[in-house]
Design goal:
The protein is α/β, with parallel strands linked by helices. The chain has 15 helices and ten strands. The chain has one domain: Aldolase class I (TIM Barrel, Alpha-Beta Barrel), CATH 3.20.20.70. The structure holds S-adenosyl-L-homocysteine and iron/sulfur cluster.
């Protein structure tokens, strides 16, 4: 006889069959997973949520991922590149608002000029915040030397989603060429970990062609990779991208949302002490989507501090939330939102990954 959800949740190790059963639960059983994940979260990382002020510094990108609204070939995307002075203003805002960290994210650009620019920015961010701000960067695939230079310049966390751990699915989402090579992306993740970054990855959930088996494998991939942080969220279609033509294969947006919450809960159960972000894409579907993710296992939120005038142009997907607001509007709104989850905000704290701290203590970093 097959196991009940209660029986599976009592285990400490999970087979692929267990994870598949958990991923496909109905509403009643789903709540059992959520409750269990919330308990694990409280026990291992506590009830504090950490802020990472997100600066979407440019939507210029040299790549052509089939799902992304700011891909190179989308001529409809109006391109911008925020000046260093404006970036530093956003940094000051995050610092003054007692956000413990910031995230610099952009489309993928690789050039000596860009490398230098980021290194200089990182040093300036450290300086103007008296080294009080933690820095995460999410600037795509880069040569090892670049990752090293940025690490030495002050970035200590890196987010690079694997998008899907199944190479076959990966190549349905990306052109098959050197610029979009699964093995290179994986090698980049490995070198980030080796250099000493707190390394974060993640996947999109509810993609066309994606199966429950793929998602179960994604969870095992993250566990095996021993990552420190994860940011994963629902795939949201964008009409000016090639993947849009497969919209008929998608599950409903509500189901993608619920499945994303399940993935977050299951990852919390599998990797108890990592940092898990409540992806912004969740909020594009449900106005309190990120808060729901906090309730079921996530412990990181990335409030957008990009100057309002640029936000509308950083459109990876449609229905992006809060593009008509300024960063200061978000602060009040966020505090009220976290309040409803029963968690508190770790103001002015870095909120580093406990998993990474333990790996250092074990001599693994
Ligand atoms: N260029 C960098 C960082 C910016 S893109 C990179 O690709 O790593 C950040 C993330 O946005 C991507 O990793 C991808 O998972 C997500 N994304 C892009 N298009 C999306 C879409 N249509 N729906 C949901 N997430 C999307
Ligand atoms: Fe560029 Fe990142 Fe979008 Fe791919 S996902 S097209 S690399 S911004």
């Amino acid at each position: 006889m097959s196991k009940t959800i209660d029986e599976i949740l009592k285990q400490t190790d999970f087979s692929k069959q267990d994870i598949l059963a958990l991923l496909q639960t109905n509403k009643e059983d789903r709540n059992k997973i959520f409750t269990h994940a919330a308990k694990v979260k409280t026990e291992y990382v506590g009830k504090k949520v950490y802020y990472r002020g997100l600066i979407e510094m440019s939507n210029i990108c040299s790549k052509n991922c089939y799902y992304c609204g700011i891909r190179l070939d989308n001529k409809k995307a109006e391109r911008y590149d925020i000046s260093d002075a404006e970036i530093l203003d956003a940094v000051k805002f995050a610092h003054e608002s007692k956000y413990g960290s910031i995230v610099l994210q952009a489309g993928e650009i690789s050039s000596p000029k860009f490398t230098k620019r980021i290194s200089n920015l990182l040093k300036q961010i450290k300086e103007i915040s008296n080294n009080e701000l933690g820095i995460t960067i999410s600037l795509g695939e880069q040569p090892d030397e670049v990752y090293k230079e940025w690490f030495e310049s002050g970035a200590h966390r890196y987010l690079l989603r694997i998008e899907s751990s199944n190479p076959d699915l990966y190549y349905k989402l990306h052109p098959k060429n050197k610029k979009h090579d699964f093995e290179i992306r994986l090698a980049c993740l490995k070198s980030l970990q080796k250099i000493g970054y707190q390394t974060g990855t993640g996947v999109m959930i509810g993609l066309p062609f994606q199966t429950y088996s793929d998602l179960a494998d994604d969870l095992f991939f993250m566990k095996e990779f021993d990552l420190d942080m994860c940011g994963m969220g629902p795939y949201i279609e964008h009409k000016d991208t090639p993947l849009y033509k497969y919209n008929n294969l998608l599950m409903s947006i509500e189901d993608r949302f619920t499945l994303s919450l399940k993935m977050i809960s299951l990852l919390r159960i599998l990797m108890k002490d990592i940092n898990i972000a409540a992806a912004t894409a969740l909020q594009a579907i449900d106005p309190i989507g990120r808060e729901k993710a906090i309730k079921v296992g996530a412990n990181i939120i990335m409030p957008n501090v990009t100057p309002g005038m640029y936000r509308d142009s950083y459109k990876l997907y449609e229905n992006k939330p809060c593009t008509d607001e300024e960063a200061s509007d978000c602060t009040n709104c966020m505090e009220i939102r976290i309040g409803i989850t029963g968690d508190e905000i770790g103001y002015s704290e870095w909120g580093d990954s406990i998993h990474h701290i333990k790996r250092i203590q074990q001599g693994l970093v």
